[in-house]
Amino acid sequence: TDTSHIRNFSIVAHIDHGKSTISDRILELTHTVEERDMRSQLLDTMDIEQERGITIKSNAVRVMYDADDGETYQFNLIDTPGHVDFTYEVSRSLAACEGAVLVVDATQGVEAQTVSNANLAMNANLEIVPAINKIDLPSAHPDEVREEIEEELAIPAEDAVCVSGKTGEGIHDLLESIVFLVPPPEGDARAPLKALILDSYFDEYRGVVAMVRVFDGSIKKGDRLHMMQGDEDFLVDAVAVKRPAEVPVRELAVGEVGVVVTGLKDPAAVRVGDTLTYADRPCAEALPGYREAKPMVYTGIFPIDNKEYENLRDALEKLRVNDPSLVWDPETSVALGFGFRVGFLGLLHMEVVKERLEREFGLDLIATSPSVDYHVYLTDGDMVDIRSPQDLPDPSSIDHIEEPYLKAKVIVPPEFTGAVMQLAVEHRGEMADMVYLSDKSVEMHFEIPLAELILDFFDQLKSRTKGYASLDYEFDEYRPSDLVKLDILLSGDDVDALSFIVHKDKAYPLARGLCDKLKEMIPRQQFEVPIQGAIGSKIIARSTVKAVRKDVLAKCYGGDITRKRKLLEKQKEGKKRMKSIGRVEVPQEAFLAVLKVD
Ligand code: GTP
């Protein structure tokens, strides 16, 4: 088979520069969806993705383009996740492409994420097609933007296409540029199958459906396939492409992108980055770049109302079906009762999952402070995995603790290297080296504890580099570290759900910060609430929530009963999101106070 008419690419852009609008126009212009069926942002399907403008899952849509040369081209438009929690997923989606359309707003020019996205795409060896968008606006200055692209990104931009996602102007030229600039996939149709799994989702009726890119060979219904990392076989139930609704096809040929219905019932069996091959005629080696989907951070998730425990378990089971990276174990807390210790890819992933649990399953939840997976070596020689501060054994039985370290890579313009270095040092990072990629960008490598990276590192990095930095990381090794457990006491009682494992040098400032934050967050009660931070029996910080006798009805005059009722209801509403810890009413957010400490 001939791959010369296939183009696999993704679209990358700074936020709001028009990526979704341009994708929609492409679907329209190629008659993939009729105008009357256009729903804007067709590629993002989940509610939360649409609301927050972040893509969580990868998606690939096939469009057929009748080019000016009289030939019809198959475009596979691959949408990639847009957050550092999903760097691995992004890298796998980009590995399925030969090119990337880099959208730059003609009124804004090159911005931070333009730089970081362009870097990701270039790192993946993709051919870049620059597109200058919003040229319909009077304030558009495409010529300057073209120069910026050349100077700041070192991308030749004489071919940059000027487009308007709004009016559709130039979109035709963009499609022609994709035909000319993005190379067709290379592959051997007769070789044993080699296909990359970009993503997967679960379908109640058909089991796991995998989104794949074929590198060699082809896939047909009835083929017996083998997953090289998962080491499992299945019979292909069907193959299809998304346009964007699923349309069955006879085969997924070499170079193509589409979906494979596996019939498998266990979502965890199909792994992003795994290689599919023929069971009876396997390829010699798997595609490079596979990584085990391993949770990076663990938090406790507890229902405010303990009667919801089983519902929470059901909800987690349901979510895992489309998110195999989710793992959990039951957890019991003296303060919060029964819940689960859940593993996530990062804090955004945690937030999204918590929000879905609350929204889609109507649960009221408390999430507790995030923790990484510590290796605790006991004096008797055993090692235990600790993912929750409250599970930390008594200090007298601990020989030493090891924590996970990452190798991190940051790409920034040279003027920010000092700021990045300082940030790294503040987070216990050690600079390894620094390489000039061009006079506009520097690649910095350092080693840093995962625990430091999960809290606020990424946000800080973005704000201190005005958004210009791109961050990528991978697990390196476990290293011994001087860690202690910081306990928080409310009214003298140790609240297990508020403890935190922290490096000894940071325990004092963190305890101080936590006591102050909690004082702000915990509303005044009818008695005074002392807040204390302690390591073992030693109190290292304290603050106090003053007592108040709060009579909400006092302000209401006379007998306006509806007004009174409204106030009482409002108060009740507020209470629902509180949890009683002993006699103290603590708001839901207080359990994540550690994320708010600066
Ligand atoms: P995120 O998904 O949030 O990252 O944004 P995006 O890059 O996908 O941008 P989106 O397509 O949502 O466009 C952002 C805003 O710019 C929207 O209000 C669009 O209507 C508007 N917009 C996009 N393209 C054009 C254009 O060519 N001209 C004008 N005038 N407005 C545009």
UniProtKB/TrEMBL annotation:
Its main location: membrane. InterPro entries: EF-4, EFG_III/V, EFG_V-like, EFTu-like_2, G_TR_CS, LepA_C_sf, LepA_CTD, LepA_IV. CDD domains: EF4_III (cd16260), LepA (cd01890), lepA_C (cd03709). Residues 4-186 form the Tr-type G domain. GO terms for molecular function: hydrolase activity; translation elongation factor activity. It is a peripheral membrane protein. Gene3D superfamilies: 3.30.70.240, Elongation factor 4, C-terminal domain, Elongation Factor G (Translational Gtpase), domain 3, P-loop containing nucleotide triphosphate hydrolases, Translation factors. It catalyses: GTP + H2O = GDP + phosphate + H(+). Its EC number is 3.6.5.n1. Keywords: Cell membrane, Elongation factor, GTP-binding, Hydrolase, Membrane, Nucleotide-binding, Protein biosynthesis. It is found in: Cell membrane. GTP binds at D16, H17, G18, K19, S20, T21, N133, K134, I135, D136. Pfam families: EFG_C, GTP_EFTU, GTP_EFTU_D2, LepA_C. Required for accurate and efficient protein synthesis under certain stress conditions. May act as a fidelity factor of the translation reaction, by catalyzing a one-codon backward translocation of tRNAs on improperly translocated ribosomes. Back-translocation proceeds from a post-translocation (POST) complex to a pre-translocation (PRE) complex, thus giving elongation factor G a second chance to translocate the tRNAs correctly. Binds to ribosomes in a GTP-dependent manner. PANTHER family: TRANSLATION FACTOR GUF1 HOMOLOG, CHLOROPLASTIC, TRANSLATION FACTOR GUF1-RELATED. Belongs to the TRAFAC class translation factor GTPase superfamily. Classic translation factor GTPase family. LepA subfamily. This is Elongation factor 4. It comes from Kribbibacterium absianum. The gene is lepA.
